[in-house]
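in:
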């Protein structure tokens, strides 16, 4: 039986929807693609597999560094384009009480 080289995905994590900052979204992540199908455990009914590489996540500063690491290890890789960051529009709390405001004040 021949062992296939695992495939990896290189991507940049998007900004969390619940946060307004951009922390932890600048680095590039490397994840291994699953090499084995999930199977249901007959005793507990949980799904799992013997593939431990899907638990590994590596972080790199640039996609070029991740590609160089993959080529040094002999892995096939795929790079996803970086998501476009939405512009941060600064807000002022005093605008909630501004005279001549266009929106209705809810309270």
């Amino acid at each position: 039986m021949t062992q296939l080289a695992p495939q990896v995905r290189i991507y940049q994590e998007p900004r969390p929807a619940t946060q307004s900052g951009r922390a932890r979204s600048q680095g590039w992540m490397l994840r291994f693609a699953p090499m084995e199908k999930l199977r249901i455990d007959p005793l507990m009914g949980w799904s799992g597999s013997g593939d431990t590489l899907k638990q590994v996540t590596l972080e790199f500063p640039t996609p070029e560094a991740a590609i160089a690491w993959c080529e040094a290890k002999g892995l096939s890789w795929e790079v996803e384009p970086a998501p476009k960051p939405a512009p941060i529009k600064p807000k002022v709390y005093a605008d909630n009480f501004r005279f001549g405001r266009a929106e209705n004040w809810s309270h």
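note: The longest strand covers residues 7-12.
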